Amino acid sequence: MENLKNSESCDPSSFLRHFRKSSATPVMLLRHIAQAMATEMQEGLDHPGERKLKMLPTYLECLPTGNERGLFYAIDLGGTNFRVLRVQLDGKEGRILKQESIQVPIPQEVMTGSSKDLFGFLAKTIVQFVSREADLGFECVALNQKRDIGFTFSFPVNQTKVNGGSINAWTKGFSISDGVGEDVVDQLEIALADMGSVNTKVVCLVNDTVGTLAQCRYWNDDAMVGVILGTGSNACYVERAAAISCWSSPPEADDLTVVNIEWGNFCSELLPRTFADEGLDADSLNPGQQEFEKMIGGMYLGEILRRVLLKMAEDTGLFGSEIPERLTKPFSLLTPHMSTMHGDDTSSLEVVGSVIEEAIGVKYTTLATRKVVYDVCDIIAERGARLSAAGIVGILTKINRCGDLMLSCLTTPNDTEVKKTVIAIDGSLYEKYPKFRNYMEDAMKEMLGEDYANNVTTTLSKDGSGVGAALLAAAISTELRLGDVGVTK
Ligand code: ADP
Ligand code: MG
User: What is residue 138's DSSP assignment?
Assistant: First the structure.
């Protein structure tokens, strides 16, 4: 966009032409990005904590198989709400017989209080929910038996074991005065013990990508990757336990575990960045970080759109001689606005017009202007979706599930040797933005080749951060009960 940065004025169509060019993601570029992602993943594994990809170990030694039986709990603390959930499992025949959850907002005074206040609040909510087990017709846990809980905790954690890790920082509007450096599971267990009677045990501490993968794996052994495409973006995948160099007592060398990539922080010269990405990053709370996430996350796509439209208003007079006031306000355009406009299939682009009026405050627009706005949405969403696809293919490259990437369009792989791979995805971008999803899936086909792509399926794994964590708790407790240290393959 060099030539656009200093341009005093130009017409919208030539601006658009340049913008399209600098956002382009031709398939060869995507393949190189995928390769760079795979290389960075290996770097992160080889140098724990020292590279752009953190490649955090989960210390999981098993994933759900579908054979689990009994009553299991999950708790999910990720943002403004706290959720507690239970599932009654009945093996492969009955699967999830029953499921129940509650969601409570975290009171403001708890979000800004002490960690004792927060964990006390969580413990109280858990105890109340557990006490209604029998009323709701769930099979009760025997008096002498503990209730196993999977804990989804979506804050930065330095994980040290499958059910423990210290808090690195409170984020997302929480400003707790203490607790950083403390073990999150210990703090919860202490708060639960203070409450007295409930017999519970947190058996795993996970993040939402891992829950997403676990939920899908419960139904399908071929699930290998979990991806979040929501406010932010991240992914995890099934890796050999032997690859985790910091695991002091790993299971057998060829056993499997899960690694949380933290792929949002991927960065590369290869990424097609524009003036809008640079501005967004410079004005963000974490400049220089999360470069990949800032090009694909739901928190950012709408803001990229706003920055491009503002520049077009300034340089090309897109909205007339005045710059719309609201367009100058960061985050005045959100990703749902963008997907609504992008979904407009009326010939006069009426929906685009009404979103422009409602969000930007411009009452009258010509069809030509609305078409330009539509095209900018298309370019930004297509780029984000195709980069997400490159990230996924990068993981497939790392685990040897991508065929021969560079040759795949020339050769037909031998079907009998090819393993099926399922990618579990959760988040509103994938679920509620059909054009984003289609662009992503098309790019995966382009990169992998039509034939090989038939072996790779992407699927919505909704609510993994809740149910997935309960299923993981079930898998772990089943392994422990069987005294089986082997890992689900
Ligand atoms: P979270 O990531 O917080 O768990 P979601 O997966 O629901 O939650 O993702 C929320 C993000 O998705 C927000 O950034 C929001 O702007 C975006 N979003 C919500 N609905 C839509 C939609 N219909 N189309 C596109 N983006 C959406
Ligand atoms: Mg989510």
Answer: P
Question: What is the rounded CA–CA span in Å between residue 40 and residue 262?
Answer: 11
Domains of the chain in sequence order: 8-56+221-462 (3.40.367.20), 59-206 (3.30.420.40)
Cα 334 to middle of ligand 1, angstroms: 9
Q: What is the mean pLDDT for each group of 10 consecutive residues in the chain (489 residues)?
A: 53 97 98 98 95 95 96 91 95 95 95 95 95 76 82 91 93 86 96 87 96 98 97 95 85 86 97 98 93 96 98 97 97 97 98 98 97 98 99 97 60 62 97 98 97 96 93 93 52
Q: Up-side HSE of residue 412: CA atoms within 13 Å toward CB?
A: 2
Nearest atom, ligand 1, residue 232 CA: 2
- Ligand 2 centroid–CA 142 distance in Å is 33
Query: Does 433 sit in the ligand 1 pocket, CB within 6 Å?
Result: yes
d(CA 328, CA 476): 51
Q: Is the CB of 113 under 6 A from ligand 1?
A: no
Indicate the Cα dihedral angle 457, 460, 464, 470, nearest 10°: -70
- Whether 357 contacts 363, CB under 8 Å: yes
